[in-house]
Each structure stands twice: as C-alpha cells, then as structure tokens.
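User: Small ask, check this?
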Amino acid sequence: ATEVPFEVIGLPIGGLTYQWSLNSTPIPGATGSSITLSAPDLYHAGLPAWGTLSLKISYRTTMVRGHDISNTLTWTVLADCNGNGVRDDFDIQNGTAKDVNHNGIPDECDFTLCCKGVTGNIDGDTNDIVDISDLSDLIDYLFNNGPISDCPQENDVDKSGAVDIGDVTSLIEFLFFSLPLPACP
C-alpha cells in the first residue's frame, strides 16, 4: 500500500466520508477508507481496469460553517487482468492478447464478449449454431494448426481450461448423441 499525505483544513466535525472513483465514475459500494482492486472484478462491474483512480474525502469543518470541505487524491491504475506481468493495453498493442470488439479489455478477460448460450460455436456462426462445421474446424485447429474462434469460452467446449481432444469429444457427443453442451460462463 502506498501512503499519501492528507492535510485536514480546520478541525473536522464528525467523521470523514469517502468515495472512490475510476476515471471520474464512482465505484459502486466503494465508500471506505481503503480499496482493493482486481482487473477482472472491475471489468465484470462494467468499469475499465485502468486510468485514474481517485479518492474523494469529505468532512465538515470549523473553518467554513455549514459547508463541506473535500480533498481528492489520485493515482494511475494499470491493469494486468491475465496476470502475465504485462499491462493489458500493451498485451493488445503487441498482439499477445486479442481485443476483437476494441473495448480495451483483452478477450480472455471479457467474459461478456463472445460466448452466448452454450459453448462450441468454433466457427463463429453469427446465429450461434453449433454444427458439424464447428467439429471440423476444431479438428483442423488441433491437428493442422487451422484457424479457431477468437472466443476462448466457445473453443473450450468442455470448460476444462484447455482446448484439446476433450472438446472434440464434447462436440461429437452433442452432434451425434444429443448430449447437452455446457452453458457459457
């Protein structure tokens, strides 16, 4: 934790109030004297995990009767949602992370991005239909380094954490034995 000097003007009357904001947007529920930020939590809350973090501290004082005084402290926040030691924006710039919808969130952290309904739409069909072409694309990817969907949640059909032969098995079970596919995360 970094300590930042804070000077109270006059004598505070009552307690201090706190509001944390990211890029001038208040973070819901962040009204304590400290905050712990994680990129995935902020992404899922619909907030970017980079930019300017600020803390507004307000209090009543004897110096200005009937008025609140506030100080705002700011920090720069840089996200690394996948924990690889590289800032997310650099991952995207360098091509080590994809950002197909250009929202500044690496696709592997953007769980609202691509997977709709169930897993298995390997070919990226816009109607989200899982069919034999998805199985063909997955086999081509695994054995011939063919192309695959930009959506990691779709590609990991069995939700094992890896794209492998288990995903082929899940697609075969769905297509030929009518077993259900897992729901998207």
